[in-house]
Specification:
This protein is mainly beta and 447 residues long. It is built from four helices and 33 strands. It folds into three domains: 118 residues, Immunoglobulin-like (Sandwich), CATH 2.60.40.680; 137 residues, Alpha-macroglobulin, receptor-binding domain (Immunoglobulin-like, Sandwich), CATH 2.60.40; 86 residues, Alpha-Beta Plaits (2-Layer Sandwich), CATH 3.30.70. 11% of the residues lie in helices and 43% in strands. The strands form nine sheets. Strands 2, 4, 6, 7, 9, 10 and 11 form a seven-stranded mixed β-sheet that branches. β20 and β21 form a beta hairpin. The longest helix has 20 residues.
């Protein structure tokens, strides 16, 4: 007799719990391509795990200017699209605990570049409106914004009666340099658990607005949990953690943080070497890399450094002769003290060997071209040097020991029509960031 009563009690308890709290939390997961061509339709899906939610509900999909959304599968809902917002409204949600809606989306030329799509699912629970947001989806529309195609080039006039015309199909690095006021740094402290560390990232963003993202590649054997988000959406997937802002906060400095946890006891100390902050400026995507930091028994550095990957020239904030480093053990550089420090700050002067030279880069091409094409295009009479790096043929002019001279020469080259020209630096044969070169040569950055 007692046993049947216990079974009945458990059954009723489970029913009541499901009725009031739902079997599972409501989740919204999007499936969008990472890139798409201009004026080409692509299919996207949103999966909604609603559990026991019923009654009125609405799914809202917000896309950037230039996008068009069409209904493909709305699961009985009423679809509409206007002013960059697509909606599906259900007077009664589908009976399935989990269902998927589909759209066909296209983007015109005005939407070219890095874009973000957001979505949210609204429903009524116990007479209260509840909203669940999808993690923002990032997409690159068209070619990478760092590349600009030059279709035709008319050669300079000669003494012959008719000038000849040749076709040049190539891609220039056409970025302006990253905002020099943006500075990124990490502060690493021990976490509450034995195998955890608190990672705080500070981004002095200046006046930039709109979409931005900070991402970090997780070391093998580690996982991460979000802490401070500063208005961003935090997610972990594909071995990366991301903080994504659809629209940046107004404050000049962003502060986000996460907890890095070692899940594999045999994993070595964590090496954070792939952190980067990316943002949009004048519809161009720009990136700033954070320094390499070690987490664990190795020194933990809070170093300010900027670096630009392929297709993005680098100009950092005006460096000083010192860099702040917070360490748990002595750092193998020149320091004012050799004792381990936990909360104090040391001054470290950057020192490197080599012959630092500044050049002006005038173009980078995926396909092979001859330097004389650039000579004619931009009326350049000086020697043009080239190198093959990261899949691009890169062309440089000038050789300067002083950064200020290189900047002046860059302006001269720009006046000849090469608006994408920017300063690059080499330490011997190795290409380094302009900031590193300035620190090595004890020079100042000039606007």
């Amino acid at each position: 007799m007692i046993k049947p009563l216990i079974i009945l009690f458990n059954t009723v308890s489970v029913f009541l719990f499901s009725f009031f709290f739902g079997d599972t939390p409501v989740t919204v997961t999007g499936s969008f391509p990472k890139s798409a061509k201009i004026d080409t339709e692509f299919v996207s899906e949103i999966k909604i795990n609603k559990g026991t939610v019923g009654g009125f509900a609405k799914l809202q999909l917000e896309v950037p200017q230039g996008f068009t959304v069409k209904e493909l599968e709305s699961k009985g809902g009423n679809f509409s699209f206007a002013t960059n917002i697509a909606k599906i409204i259900w007077t009664s949600t589908p009976s399935d605990a989990e269902f998927t809606v589909k759209f066909t989306i296209s983007a015109d030329a005005s939407a070219a570049g890095q874009k973000v799509i957001t979505s949210k699912f609204s429903y009524v629970n116990n007479n209260n409106k509840e909203v669940v947001e999808m993690a923002p989806a990032e997409m690159m529309i068209g070619d990478a914004p760092a590349e600009t195609s030059i279709a035709t080039t008319t050669q300079p006039e000669t003494t012959t009666p008719a000038a000849t015309t040749s076709t040049l199909v190539a891609s220039f690095d056409n970025h302006t340099e990253p905002n020099s006021n943006i500075v990124c740094s990490r502060i690493i402290t021990n976490g509450a658990a034995a195998n955890s560390h608190n990672i705080e990232v500070r981004i002095k963003k200046g006046e930039i607005k709109g979409f931005a993202k900070f991402q970090e590649v997780l070391p093998a054997g580690y996982t991460a949990k979000g802490d401070k988000t500063n208005g961003s959406s935090f997610s972990v997937s594909d071995g990366k953690l991301k903080f994504v802002w659809v629209s940046l906060p107004a404050e000049n400095e962003l502060v986000v943080s996460y907890v890095l946890e070692k899940t594999d006891a045999s994993a070595p100390d964590a090496k954070l070497d792939n952190g980067e902050f990316s943002y949009l400026e004048n519809d161009q995507s720009k990136k700033i890399k954070l320094p390499i930091d070690m987490v664990g028994t190795s020194a933990v550095a809070d170093v300010v450094k900027t670096e630009t990957p392929v297709q993005t020239p680098t100009v950092a904030a005006e460096p000083t002769s010192t860099t702040q480093v917070t360490s748990n053990e002595p750092v193998k550089t020149e320091t004012t003290s050799t004792e381990p420090v936990k909360t104090e700050t040391k001054e470290v002067v950057a020192k490197k060997e080599g012959n630092v030279i500044y050049n002006v880069q005038i173009g980078a091409f995926r396909n092979a071209i001859q330097s004389d094409v650039l000579s004619k295009k931009f009326n350049i009479t000086e020697t043009i040097k080239s190198e093959m790096a990261e899949g691009f043929s890169k062309f440089m002019v000038g050789s300067f020991n002083e950064y200020k001279q290189a900047r002046s020469h860059r302006e001269t080259v720009k006046q000849k029509g090469c608006n994408s020209a920017f300063v690059v630096a080499y330490n011997g044969s190795k290409r380094i960031t302009v900031q590193e070169a300035l620190m090595i040569t004890s020079q100042k950055w000039f606007k």
